[in-house]
Amino acid sequence: MSATMKVLGAGDTLTIIIFGATGDLAKRKLFPALYQLMYACPDAPLLPVMTRIVGYGRSAMKLEDFIGKQCGLVQGSNRSDFLKQVSYFQGKYDVEEDFGKLHAALLELEGSSGTANRLFFLSIPPTAFACVCKNIHLQACAANGFTRVIIEKPFGRDSRTFAELNSTTLGIFREDQIFRIDHYLAKENVLNLLVARFANQIYEPLLNRHQVAQVEIVWKEDIGTEGRGGYFNEFGIIRDMMQNHLLQIFQWLAMEPPERLDAEHIAKEKRRLLQAVRTLSLEDCFLGQYGPGHRKDKSGDVHAEVGYLEDSTVPAGSRCPTFAAVALTVENERWRGVPFLMRAGKALNERLAEVVITFKRQDYNSLVPSEPNQLVFRIQPDEGIFFKCINKRPGWKQTNTAPVQMDMSYDRAFPGSYNAGAYERMLLNASTGDQSLFVGSEELVEAWRIFTPLLDEIDATQPLPVRYPFGARAPDGFANFCRARGIVCEEASEHYYLPKFIRGIPVLVQEAEDTWRADNSKLGSHNGGLCFRKSTDMADRAQEDFLLMYGTTTKGIDIGNNWVKVPYEVPLATGNVFGSLRVDINRARSPSRWRPDNSVRDPPQSPARSRTPLRGASIQPAELPTCKAKGGRDNFADEPQAQAETV
Questions:
Q1: What are phi and psi of 13, to 5 degrees?
Q2: Catalytic site residue from 245, 303, 495, 526
Q3: What does pTM read for this prediction?
Q4: Bridge partners of 406?
Q5: Which residues contact 333 (CB under 8 A, 6 or more apart)?
Q6: Could you write out the three-class secondary structure of 497-554?
Q7: Cα 599 from chain centroid?
Q8: pLDDT tens-digit series, residues 381-403
Q9: 11 CA to centre of own chain
Q10: Does the active-site annotation cover 245?
Q11: How far apart are CA 216 and CA 355, in angstroms?
C-alpha cells in the first residue's frame, strides 16, 4: 500500500475517465493495464483498488454489454472486484451539456471524499482533442483535486496542425497538466538506454563521432495493415512510427547527460539535441510499399499475403509508403559526421525493434582480420544488449579469427521478473504527476520542424514508392541509398561468405579469377551444397535451404583466411541458390544459456513448401535434399577447431 500513497494522499480518491472507451486501444491495453496496477502486478495496488474507471463513448450501450465487449482481456482472481469499479457514460465530444452531465455523474461516484482527483485519457482522433479539452475545462474539471489529461498520438500531422493543437490545449490547461503519451518511452530496453549510458563507465565515452561510424534505429513488423489500411493511409509510416517512436529512441541515445533525471532536465537536453538536427528533405529519404508475398507463421507454415494496394480499405492507386528510411544529420560536437539511419517498415521478414551502433575501425585493426564492433540494444522481441567483437579461433594460426557475441538477455539476467506493459507505466506516472516519460510541447515543435518539409514534399509530389514483396528483408535499392550516405547496413548487405575448406578438405574450387565451383568430390558428401554464411563464422548460417548446389558456380572474391565473398545479386545458374535472405545473427537464445547449433538444418518440408528465390536467380520451386549427413548433422557441424582450416 505504500506505493499507492505515492499516487494519492490519505483519504484522496482517483477517477480515470477514458474517452474513446469503446475503441481497440481501451480494449487491448487500457483496461488490462488498469487491472494490473490495481490487483495483479508486483507490489499491487499501485493504484488504489477503489479507483473508479469511467468509459466515455458516443454510442448508447448498456453497462453489461460494454463490459462484455471491452473488458474480455481482463483476467484474474480479482476480475469481479475490478469490474465493480467500471461504469459507462454515453455522450458527444462536441456537446458541452453532455460534459455537464458527466461532471454530475462523477460527483455522485466520488461522494463525500476529501480530495477527488480526475485523470482524463483521450484515446480519440486528434481532430476531437480541442473540443474535448475545452468541454472538460468548462464542465468536468475536478472540484477539489488535480485534473490531468493524457493525450494519445498523433499530435497533429505537421508543424502547422501541431501549432494549432498546442495553442488550443495550452490555452486550456497548464503544461504540467498535459501528458502527451509515447508508449515507446515506457519499454524496458528504451528505459535501459539511460541506465546503460549513465550507470556504467564503458558506454558513454564511446558514444561520439571519434568512435562511432554509424547508428541504425530499426523497427520492422512482419504483418501488413490487416484491414486497417484506410486509417494507415491517412498518416503513413513516417507519421505513424518515425516522427514519434523512433525519434524518441534517438533522443534518449544521443542527448547529452542531463543534470538530473527529472522531467525538466531531460526535456531540456532532448530539445537541445533536436535543435542540432538538420531538417529533412526527400533527398534524405527512401520510400517503399509492400506488394503480394508470403509470411511464415510461428509454426513454420507459409501463407500467401496480399499487397498493400489489395487491402480493400486502401484507396486505389495509393502511394502511401509502408517502408521508409531517413538519414539524420546532427550538427553538434558529439555527433557531427555520424549518420543516424532511421528505418521502419511493415510486411517485412520479421518483427524487430533495435538500435545498432557500429564503431569505427582503427589503424591497428589491420594487424588481424576483423570486422567493426557493434553494440545492439534489442527493444523487442527478446529484449537484451548484445556486443559483437572479434575473437581468435582455437587453433595454431594467430590470424584465424571469428566474430563472437557477448549478450545480456533480460529473460536470462532477470528470470521471473515482471515486465510491466508500457501503458501500465504511463498510467501510473500520469497518476503520480511524473512527466519524465512524456513528450513536451517544445520538444514536439523541434520534432515537427525536422520532418514537416519532408512530409510536405511527399504530399505535394506523391513519389512512387519502391514495391517490395511481403516478407522481404528490405526493398530493392535500399542498399544503394545506404551506400550513397556512407552507411553500411547489414539488412541491405549484398554479399555472403562461402568457406573454401571444410575439415581441411577443399570444397570450393576456383575456376577463374572470380568464379568458384562448389565441389564435394573430395569431401565425399552427396548432400545438397554449401551453406551461405553471413560472416566468416561457420555457425553464422544465413538460413535454411540457402546454399550453393554442389557442381554449380558463383562469382566471388577470395578475401583470405580461407573465405570467399559472394555477391548475391549476380545472376546465377538455374537451381543454384534458394533462400529468403533473412539472417539472425543476434537471436536464438534461451534462459538456460543453451544456444542451438545453427549448422544443423531443419528437416525437409512437404513439396508444397514455398521458397523465395535469391534475387537474380531464375528457378522453379523444387524440394532440395537435406544438408544432414547420416549422423543427423550437416557436413560442417564438427568441432570448431576443425572448421575452415587450411590443408
A1: -125, 160
A2: 245
A3: 0.76
A4: 387
A5: none
A6: EEECEECCEECEEEEECCEEEECCCCCCCCCCEEECECCCCCCCECCCCCEEECCCEE
A7: 28
A8: 888 899 988 888 888 888 777 77
A9: 42
A10: yes
A11: 6
